[in-house]
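Suppose you are handed only two things: the residues of a chain and a line of SMILES describing adenosine-5'-diphosphate. What would the bound structure be? This form records exactly that question and the answer produced for it, so the two can be stored side by side and reused later without any lookup.

QUESTION INPUTS
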Amino acid sequence: MSILQLQDVYFSYKNKYQTNEVLKGLTAEFSEGKIYALTGKSGSGKSTALALMAGLELPERGAVLYEGVSTREMDLNCYRREKAAVIYQSFRLFPLLTALENVMFPMGLRGIKGRSAMEQAKEYIHRVGLEDTVFHRFPNMMSGGEQQRVAIARSLAMDTKLLLADEPTGNLDTANSENVMEILCGLAHEDGYCVILVTHDMGLLGYVDEVYQMQDGKFTKQ
Ligand SMILES: Nc1ncnc2c1ncn2[C@@H]1O[C@H](COP(=O)(O)OP(=O)(O)O)[C@@H](O)[C@H]1O
Ligand SMILES: [Mg+2]
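ANSWER OUTPUT
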């Protein structure tokens, strides 16, 4: 059974002067244990589609369903905190928190604190292939590849089944990009996450199970 479905989703950005219709009937479905890529040209609406899946925006028409329930019928703050973890191209770690504190942060929101939170956070950091030496480093003391891995560890600490990633390798060199893709594949295939990745880098498509190509506001499945 799919965990996330897009059913004929329409979305536009509007202001006083103009309407920009970005999504014009997106339909897709995503299952646990698989890794997916959404590709397409710059400006084609990939990040917008991800924002709807993350519960940051609601569709104008059609529906985004998580385990069969429309995001329109949910408390979106709960959905964002409990169901959809997101990682970004620019990492977005909290600059004044150490790696360990960054990873512990979402646990604090779920009421997991103290020693057990710290032990679990250390496990997540090891899960993404980092050593104990990063625990007490601040983001500006880590390389881009290390920061993105800490960001992935922080998203694991949200304890969701869904992992959304917007151009997660966009700021990384080839070796770090491959490393991040291997981690994301492992999370899908070994740990059972549903991983949905936005990328315009065709070189990464070999890692994923299914590819949705965005064109003229719709998906075509590759
Ligand atoms: N917050 C916004 N307000 C108005 N227009 C936006 C906003 N965000 C994105 N857009 C426009 O929507 C279109 C799709 O953008 P986006 O989803 O970011 O594309 P992609 O991620 O594929 O590059 C673009 O034309 C972009 O300029
Ligand atoms: Mg984008």
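WHAT STANDS OUT: The beta strands are 2-14, 19-31, 35-39, 61-66, 69-70, 84-88, 162-166, 194-198, 210-215, 218-221. The mean pLDDT is 96.
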